[in-house]
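Q: I'm building a small set of examples for a reading group on sequence design. Run inverse folding on the following structure and report the sequence directly after it, with nothing in between.
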């Protein structure tokens, strides 16, 4: 069994946050007592126990308010920690730790729960379990051996929730259900009941569904037979199609060979035409090239090649020389650029050095000016004329330093003189101030004594004034005493206490009669309860009958209109099933018609597809041919493009011939202009007036001569491209003829055929839509009827159940024969309530009489108190009259002393005035002295600062001058000027070298241009000889193609192709017919397979078998659920009755031994079954209430208790629950159990707790934790042998809670 041993608290509520403030408490067995004032932190200990065991914060508390406030602790972070050591249900030592953290962020406090740890000892080693690895709350509940609800509501119940047993009904029921753990068992019963009802409904649904599954299974067998027949017919049709395909294949293969041969013939014809065209063009090109050349090379091909290669080597060598000169020129240019950059950098550096030299002269001039000015200011000789030498400047600096030291010494001496005078004045001021302060204190002391004496004199005079009327007051008190005594005598005479007591006895007898009548009515109610079951069953059966009739009415109203519209009347189940069978036959007939139309449509679609394929093939062939024509021609006008291309070829040939002759013409013109003595224009014979114009003409001709080879090459390239394109267009003439035939004949025929097929398909689709609409209407009617069929079946079942209910109503009516049904439970209950009201009225009268007796007694007691009070006042006045002489003497003494004090105060004030005047005069003189000192010191300091500032400026200029001389800037300037002159000389030399290289390169270029002309002539000779060879090759190819074409029998191939196409068309027609029939068979097979895939036919046999198994197993499971329900219900009843009897027995014993009042004999917890639950509903739901019993009467305690009774009842109920449910955990904490209890009940509570401890002393783990501020209650507990010491909770100097262990002997001493 579990028990707690030790706990430490740190940083929780008012407990300190430092390690030194950590508080540790050890829990004793069997009793631990904690005492302390309100707010000391007693309840915090129970809150910590509850938190560490359950993880729940106190009621109405969030995490941040449970931790010590960071603002109070003046910390940003506050860490709270609770540690508990206890023994679990197995006796093992367990240590648990929970930590929290509060962080102050601005005005907001953030709370965070840190990682918790549970530590156990296993096999001599510590084993720790973190809250990250397991749920700590569940581990703690398991270790303590009690549920969380018992921990929260019984063991560690918070003071705010301690009165929960007397809370309102809903909250009380929730608490007791949690403690009894009844909720989960009731939920289990409810779940079993719901499952059983659901399973029963499922069985009925399975039976209905099984019937339809059987029909589906039989229908599926029929469809499978039809499917097998169609598959056989399909196989035969496929064999027929395959045989036709086998006969078509050789024909198509032969036709393909003929097409290939004809294509080859067409290709040969195109090649021959292209070769002839190419031969003609090549002959023309050769002729033009010969005309362009001035002369032909007469040597062999090898000699021509050698001469061409030698000429190329000469040109390459000169070009290489030209490149070398270009690289040399680049190097010279780079050197010039580098020298120019150096010159620029040197010019910049020269400017910078010149600027520094100018600045040096300016600094020397400014320094000498400042030295002269300062020497004149300080009256120093020898510095009248600038410039100054270094020796003069050093002498000036020494004299200036000496002058500054002299000025500083004078300033210090002046300050010392003024300080002595100021100290002397201060001593005089202090002497006068001390005298003045002494007189002021004397005056204040005497004024204080004077005021006290005046107050005492006033009090004495008031007492004397009061005593002057004492004799009169004494007479008045005598009269008042006589009056009060007379009233007391009259009140005692007129009181009717005895009569009221007699009436009270009569009312008590009347109340006893009312109680007897209530008991008689209770017996009558018990008698009526014997027949309640039969009556309740009768009412439930009538209600069930009405429900069944309502269900039947709803079904008829829901489907009446639909069924009457379909059948003309509201049918029964058999009539509706017959109508459905007829409707299914109509649907099948409609589907057959639709299937036939689908078959015709498929055949038409196949024919359409075949036509579309042919049309697409022709269109693709046309598109390919047109694209081929477009790729070559660029447009569709083939003839005009061909004609235009031939014109372009002729123009380009002429341009090429002209360019070939231009080389010779330009060369001849240049020779004439350069060789003749008086050159003239070769064309117009005009003589050039100047050499410059002649040179311009020669340069222009040479430039054109250089461009001729490139233009000639471009013209030849363009001519070749156009010739190639002409050859391609000549080869496309047969393609052009095929395109015309496709456009004018083949494609229009195929399009007309396709339109006819589309019209047939459209007609078939319209017929199919009409048939599908009719079929949809049939299916819709069938669906409506099927939807109604289930409700019709349900209605017939309701009608059978209705007849059974009517039979059971007749049986219950027979059972109730002979019973007085006129006297109902409600009537008896109403009469009982009236009797209870009458009894309450009598009780109120009794209470009123008691109150009247008490009021009269209190009135008599009040008058007696007034008599005693007046007598006491008379004695007091007589005593005061004896003190009158003593008060008069004190008055005279106080008056004399006050006059003497007034005289002394006046004299002291007269002495104070001269001292104040003298003190003001001395303070003024001291202030004048301080002002003169500050003025003189300021003047001297300003003079010194001025000299220092000028000396600082002179030193700055001197440092710059010395730095310039030290860095030898003049020598550096001269060196840079010499380097700049050398660089300019190198730049001039490089420019001369660059000019020379330019002239050499120009001469080399002119020589290379002359060599290029001869190279062009050699190249033309090579080209001519190459073309002659190519012409021979073309001629040989043309002869070979003519020979090959003559060997092929073209006409025979075309006749054979026509015959094969006719035979192939016949076979294809037969194949299409066979494929149409095959398509029909396939669609029928698909239709049957689709039907078999429908939900009602797919796996119909397996579904039927599975549903049969499910129905049988569900019936067996339902029977087992009924057995389980009854067994669990009886077990819960026995457990609840046994526990409630045990709890109430403990409550009765504790109440009788604790409560000292006579109005309540005992209290107990009543658990009543919920009256709102119907008899057919076997669920049990318990409603709890606390009642108080007096005699035979039991009243609800809620609303009738006093504050003390409420606390005591709640405490006793918790003690009883703890003893009943805490078998594995003997811990119980009581927080302020004496709240609102009077002294007598407190003593009886202490006695009861001692008796409980004594009865459970043999239980080693029983622990009672009592928290109270009532030290008398602790003293009562300490009279037993179980309390030797207790813990006192208090606040220390830092207002943090402390736990101090004290002996019970210290209770009286502390008080």
């Amino acid at each position: 069994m579990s028990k707690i041993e030790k706990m430490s608290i740190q940083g929780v509520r008012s407990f300190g946050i430092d390690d030194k403030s950590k508080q540790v408490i050890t829990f004793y067995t069997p009793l631990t007592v904690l005492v302390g004032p309100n707010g000391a932190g007693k309840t915090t200990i129970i809150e910590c126990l509850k938190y560490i065991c359950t993880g729940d914060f106190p009621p109405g508390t969030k995490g941040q308010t449970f931790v010590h406030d960071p603002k109070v602790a003046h910390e940003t972070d506050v860490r709270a920690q609770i540690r508990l050591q206890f023994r679990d249900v197995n006796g093992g030592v367990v240590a648990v730790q929970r930590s929290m953290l509060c962080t102050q962020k601005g005005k907001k406090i953030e709370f965070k729960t840190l990682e918790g740890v549970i530590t156990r000892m296993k096999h001599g080693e510590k084993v720790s379990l973190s809250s990250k690895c397991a749920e700590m709350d569940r581990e703690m509940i398991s270790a303590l051996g009690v549920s969380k609800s018992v921990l929260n509501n019984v063991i560690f119940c918070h003071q705010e929730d301690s009165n929960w047993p007397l809370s309102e009904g809903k909250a009380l029921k929730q608490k007791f259900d949690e403690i009894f753990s009844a909720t989960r068992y009731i939920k289990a019963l409810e779940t079993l009941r719901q499952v059983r009802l659901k399973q029963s409904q499922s069985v009925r649904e399975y039976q209905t569904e099984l019937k339809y599954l059987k029909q589906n299974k039989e229908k599926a067998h029929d469809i499978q037979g039809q499917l097998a027949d169609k598959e056989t017919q399909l196989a035969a049709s496929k064999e027929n199609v395959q045989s036709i395909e086998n006969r078509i294949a050789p024909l198509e293969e032969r036709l393909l060979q003929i097409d290939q041969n004809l294509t080859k013939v067409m290709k040969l014809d195109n090649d021959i035409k292209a070769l002839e065209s190419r031969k003609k063009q090549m002959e023309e090109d050769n002729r033009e090239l010969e005309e362009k050349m001035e002369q032909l090379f007469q040597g062999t091909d090898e000699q021509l090649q050698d001469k061409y290669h030698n000429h190329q080597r000469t040109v390459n060598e000169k070009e290489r020389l030209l490149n070398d000169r270009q690289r040399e020129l680049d190097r010279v240019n780079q050197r010039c650029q580098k020298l120019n950059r150096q010159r620029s950098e040197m010019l910049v550096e020269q400017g910078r050095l010149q600027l520094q030299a100018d600045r040096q002269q300016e600094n020397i001039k400014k320094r000498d000016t400042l030295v002269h000015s300062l020497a004149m200011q300080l009256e120093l000789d020898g510095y009248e004329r600038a410039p100054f030498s270094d020796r003069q400047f050093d002498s000036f600096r020494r004299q200036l330093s000496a002058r500054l030291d002299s000025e500083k010494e004078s300033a210090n001496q002046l300050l010392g003189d003024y300080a002595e005078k100021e100290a002397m004045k201060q001593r005089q001021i202090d002497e006068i101030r001390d005298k003045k302060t002494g007189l002021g204190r004397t005056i204040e002391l005497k004024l204080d004594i004077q005021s006290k004496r005046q107050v005492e004199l006033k009090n004495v005079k008031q007492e004397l004034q009061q005593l002057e009327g004492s004799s009169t007051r004494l007479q008045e008190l005598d009269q008042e005493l006589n009056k009060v005594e007379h009233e007391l005598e009259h009140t005692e005479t007129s009181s009717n206490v005895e009569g009221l007591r007699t009436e009270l006895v009569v009312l008590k007898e009347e109340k006893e009669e009312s109680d007897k009548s209530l008991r008689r009515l209770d017996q009558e109610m018990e008698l009526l309860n014997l027949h309640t079951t039969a009556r309740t069953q009768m009412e439930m059966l009538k209600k069930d009958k009405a429900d069944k009739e309502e269900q039947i009415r709803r079904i008829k109203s829901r489907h009446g209109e639909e069924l009457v519209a379909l059948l003309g009347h509201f049918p029964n189940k058999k009539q509706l099933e017959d109508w459905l069978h007829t409707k299914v036959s109509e649907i099948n007939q409609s589907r057959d018609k639709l299937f036939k139309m689908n078959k015709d449509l498929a055949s038409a679609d196949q024919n359409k597809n075949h036509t579309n394929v042919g049309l697409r093939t022709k269109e693709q062939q046309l598109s390919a041919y047109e694209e081929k024509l477009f790729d070559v021609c660029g447009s569709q006008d083939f003839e005009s493009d061909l004609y235009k291309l031939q014109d372009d070829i002729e123009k380009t040939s002429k341009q090429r011939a002209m360019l070939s002759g231009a080389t010779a013409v330009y060369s001849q013109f240049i020779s004439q202009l350069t060789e003749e003595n008086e050159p003239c224009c070769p064309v117009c014979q005009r003589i050039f007036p100047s050499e410059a114009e002649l040179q311009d003409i020669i340069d222009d001709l040479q430039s054109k001569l250089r461009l001729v080879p490139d233009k000639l090459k471009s013209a030849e390239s363009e001519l070749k491209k156009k010739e190639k394109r002409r050859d391609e267009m000549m080869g496309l003439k047969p393609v052009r003829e095929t395109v015309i035939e496709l456009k004018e004949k083949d494609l229009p025929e195929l399009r007309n055929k396709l339109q006819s097929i589309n019209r047939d398909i459209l007609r078939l689709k319209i017929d199919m839509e009409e048939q599908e609409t009719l079929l949809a209407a049939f299916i819709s009617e069938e669906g409506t009827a099927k939807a109604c069929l289930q409700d019709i079946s349900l209605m017939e079942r309701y009608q059978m159940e209705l007849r059974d209910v009517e039979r059971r109503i007749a049986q219950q009516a027979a059972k109730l024969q002979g019973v007085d049904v006129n006297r109902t439970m409600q009537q008896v209950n109403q009469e009982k309530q009236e009797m209870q009201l009458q009894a309450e009225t009598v009780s109120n009268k009794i209470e009123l009489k008691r109150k009247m007796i008490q009021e009269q007694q209190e009135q008599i007691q009040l008058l007696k108190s007034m008599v005693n009070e007046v007598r006491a006042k008379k004695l007091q006045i007589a005593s005061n009259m004896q003190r009158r002489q003593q008060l008069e003497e004190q008055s005279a003494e106080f008056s004399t002393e006050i006059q003497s004090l007034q005289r002394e105060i006046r004299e002291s004030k007269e002495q104070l005035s001269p001292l104040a005047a003298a003190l003001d005069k001395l303070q003024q003189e001291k202030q004048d002295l301080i002002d003169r000192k500050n003025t003189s010191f300021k003047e001297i300091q300003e003079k010194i600062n001025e000299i220092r500032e000028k000396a600082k400026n002179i030193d700055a200029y001197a440092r710059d001058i010395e730095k310039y001389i030290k860095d030898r800037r003049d020598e550096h300037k001269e060196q840079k000027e010499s380097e700049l002159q050398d660089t300019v000389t190198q730049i001039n030399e490089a420019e001369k070298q660059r000019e020379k290289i330019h002239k050499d390169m120009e001469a080399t270029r002119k020589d290379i241009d002359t060599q290029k002309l001869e190279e062009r002539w050699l190249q033309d000779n090579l080209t001519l000889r190459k073309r002659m060879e190519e012409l021979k090759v073309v001629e040989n190819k043309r002869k070979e193609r003519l020979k090959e074409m003559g060997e092929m029998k073209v006409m025979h191939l075309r006749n054979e192709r026509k015959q094969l196409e006719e035979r192939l068309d016949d076979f294809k027609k037969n194949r299409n017919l066979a494929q149409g029939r095959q398509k029909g068979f396939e669609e029928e097979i698909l239709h049957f397979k689709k039907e078999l895939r429908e939900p009602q036919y797919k796996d119909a046999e397996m579904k039927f078998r599975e549903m049969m198994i499910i129905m049988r197993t569900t019936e067996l499971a339902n029977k087992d659920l009924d057995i389980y329900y009854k067994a669990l219900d009886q077990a819960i009843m026995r457990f609840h009755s046994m526990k409630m009897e045990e709890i109430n027995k403990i409550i009765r014993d504790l109440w009788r031994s604790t409560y000292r009042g006579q109005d309540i004999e005992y209290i107990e917890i009543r658990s009543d079954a919920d009256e709102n639950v119907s008899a057919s509903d076997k669920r049990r739901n318990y409603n709890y209430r606390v009642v108080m019993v007096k005699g035979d009467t039991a009243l609800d305690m809620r609303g009738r208790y006093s504050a003390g009774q409420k606390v005591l009842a709640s405490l006793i109920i918790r003690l009883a629950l703890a003893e009943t449910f805490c078998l594995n955990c003997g811990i119980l904490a009581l927080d302020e159990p004496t709240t609102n209890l009077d002294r007598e009940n407190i003593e009886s509570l202490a006695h009861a707790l001692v008796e409980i401890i004594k009865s459970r002393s043999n239980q080693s783990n029983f622990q009672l934790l009592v928290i109270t501020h009532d030290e008398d209650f602790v003293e009562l507990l300490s009279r037993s042998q179980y309390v030797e010491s207790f813990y006192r909770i208090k606040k220390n100097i830092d207002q943090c809670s402390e736990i101090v262990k004290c002996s019970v002997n210290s209770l009286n001493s502390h008080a």
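DSSP finds 25 helices and 15 strands in the chain.
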